[in-house]
Specification:
Structural class: alpha+beta
Largest sheet: 4 strands, antiparallel
Distance between the termini: 21 Å
Order of helices and strands: HEEHEEEHEEEEEHHHHH
Strand order of the largest sheet: 5-4-6-7
Shape: elongated
Radius of gyration: 24 Å
Length: 352
């Protein structure tokens, strides 16, 4: 069931991304030759008044093919004929739509929440070893962990887990002042809670009532927190902390979705977890598409800016076909990487 859901939702995510490009392009008066969901051979197609709408075999992408995207066709409605501000909003529209889709899903998921756990310490566990004036005190607001802003207890738990060794740069807000404790030790210990021993940090945080405002605020911060975590992951890739074996493509994500759904205690909780995961994936698509990599939207925006600077320097317009060559090469490399990751995903599935 969850595999089917994953495939359907992937289609929705791709459709929403391309719909962003399509809608803004149409609003800007740009001619769209084809609007496609999926890649590869065409399964279904319908010719509209101006645009060909198609459904393709491979659920690994899609496209909104605009007239004159990579070359000057002489058509005044071509993408290449538009002013740069129009090009910018058209290119950014897909990622924006993915982000808004993820935000909407998060808002829906937390619409019935009864409350949220904040970042103000209301109580310290008996035997808590890190208290006092040079440590944590009841009433302190945990403001930042290793420079990462903390808004809720879930943020605190996330960034403590990312730290790993329990020695952090901790910032608290106490009596209106920010206090920073560098190389502060804060580790999990066993604490007795009403006769039950739990391994935890020993902090109890405040409860925030669930109002319309607090629900919207929590949803916004949860969604933007996805962006923070994605940037951290990208940093780990750049520094070599994460390798190919840790990366996943469509096959790996579908497998993960299936595992998450089946691990849940009930179908309802499984659907909730899977939906939350797809909100994260939607935001991930938004961030990844805005990276300055050829063939991606961010790469097109980056090259558009570079081209504008070069045109100012050389004093004449640069033929769009050269930018097209770069994006074509980037697309080939990107598809090659996707193929390698897909093979890696399949190997991981069959070999654990």
């Amino acid at each position: 069931m969850y595999i089917v859901i994953a495939i359907i939702v992937f289609g929705i995510l791709i459709a929403s991304h391309e719909l962003g490009h399509f809608t803004v392009a149409k609003l800007c008066g740009v001619k769209v030759n084809e609007f496609a969901i999926g890649m590869g051979p065409t399964l279904l197609k319908k010719q509209g008044k101006e645009t060909l709408y198609s459904w393709r075999l491979l659920p690994i992408g899609g496209f909104c093919a605009m007239e004159g995207e990579d070359e000057d066709t002489g058509d005044p409605r071509a993408f290449s004929s538009q002013p740069k501000w129009k090009k910018l909003i058209i290119l950014a529209a897909g990622a924006t739509m993915n982000f808004l889709f993820g935000l909407l899903v998060v808002v829906i998921l937390f619409a019935n929440s009864q409350g949220f756990v904040g970042n103000t310490v209301t109580e310290l566990a008996d035997g808590f070893p890190y208290g006092g004036q040079q440590g944590i005190m009841a009433g302190d607001e945990i403001y930042a962990v290793n420079g990462h802003r903390i808004h809720y207890s879930s943020d605190f738990t996330t960034f403590m887990a990312l730290d790993g060794d329990g020695v952090i740069d901790l910032t608290v807000r106490r009596d209106g002042q920010k206090l920073k404790f560098e190389n502060f030790e804060l580790k999990r210990h066993e604490y007795n809670d009403n006769g039950v021993t739990n391994l935890r940090y020993g902090l109890t945080f405040n409860l925030i009532p669930a109002t319309l405002g607090s629900k919207l605020t929590y949803s916004w911060r949860e969604t933007t927190n996805f962006v923070r975590l994605i940037w951290i992951s990208l940093g780990q890739i750049v520094t070599g902390q994460v390798g190919l074996k840790d990366m996943s493509g469509v096959v790996g994500i579908v497998s993960t979705v299936n595992d998450v759904g089946n691990a849940a205690e009930s179908v309802r909780s499984g659907l909730w977890s899977v939906t939350y995961l797809f909100a994260f994936i939607a935001v991930n698509l938004a961030v990844m598409n805005m990276l300055p990599i050829p063939a991606l939207d961010g790469g097109r925006i980056f090259l558009m800016i570079v081209t504008a600077i070069l045109e100012k320097i050389v004093g004449h317009k640069i033929d769009p076909k050269y930018e097209g060559y770069i994006h074509t090469a980037g697309l080939i490399l990107l598809l090659g990487l996707m193929a390698v990751i897909m093979v890696s995903d399949v190997v991981k599935i069959f070999h654990g």
